[in-house]
Protein 1
Amino acid sequence: MGRGMSFPMIQFTKEKVVIVTGSNTELSEDGFERMFQVNYLSQFLLTAHLLPIMKTSGEDCRIVLVSSNAHKYASRFDVNSIHYKGDPEKFSSYQYYSKSKEHQVMQMFSMNHRLQGSNVAITSLHPGVVNTEFSRYIQERNCCWNCIGKCVWSGAFTRTPFEGAKTTIDAAVNPKWKGKGGIYFESCKEATPTAQSRNEEYQTALWRHTLELLKNHLPTDILQGLEGKNE
């Protein structure tokens, strides 16, 4: 997953690469559930690589994680269930998509705690339901969820890509949010994510598990910084 990176200066990074797999569980080349890797793990890795550069790139650097209010539908958090090991016929793509979006919110809280006193602020947000090609990949076995998903993304309830970008742009450049991290946004306003995503015990468990998964893809100094060993 990791490759050498070199950037002179970075003041803003927006992390958004989203997939929804089909009705069967799919593994990445690295052996992880694909949505977990693409929607969460890969973005965590990229952010980790960029942090040292951002810390030397000026006084107002921001990381914006584009999550989703789908995180509200994630089942009870259990670090042992992150990697689906059950019957492939019982895999719920929407549930694991929701989990991957919840992981982003939890990452935001954990990383914000570690960035206190620095020039880097991290936030996350729900951009709204945006009318894109996303709905093509909704294939949920539960016919109720499948119908709801297709209906919601049909256009009647969605925002245009421009409207969907507003909250991200606001979080990235609005002077009002300078130096303010640990905030979850909806429609350009502060909102409250789920109690589960705000649970510090769960956040710590996910953070430690993530670093364990990525330890072979991060330089020692970055890994130690994320572990708090450089403090």
Protein 2
Amino acid sequence: MGLYTGSDESINYKTNLMLLMMIMTLLMMLERTKMLLLVMKRIIIVMRSMMKQISNSDYVDDIYDICMSTSVMMLLITS
């Protein structure tokens, strides 16, 4: 995945997470098939693993909440 890699790790992870959030939102708008739902689940897994790498950060909980609420919305839309 051609994600941004910078010298400052916190900015790096924040940028990557924001990119993934945008991708997730786009996928939500385009959601029509079960295939895209699987892609969504993979993106959420990637985001979780990235968040585990950021151990001492304040914004991790906020991003995690956003991810979870987005995925719940996703499931509601597809059901």
Protein 3
Amino acid sequence: MDFLGKLEALMGMEFGSTELLAKTGEIVAERAREEAEVLLDEGKVEDRMVTELFRVLKLMEMDLAMVKAAVKEDTLNQRLEQAKARCRQAILVANSF
């Protein structure tokens, strides 16, 4: 799930708007879910691992929604760091497949 790594890298760069970043995060999370479901259907991954990935992806999406809603620069940076941490956590879970 290389696209999770690309999303994390994107979060570390200057981006056009927080709305675009949040939308990108939603798209990446949905793609990760689709791939995990395919692996689950093929019996290549345990159900509990997919459940954990889904949980982390949902938390990442919530963090990105808070990035989008942030008004102050310091709040934006805090929320962005939290979203990046969740993305790294999702990468670790996905790599355990």
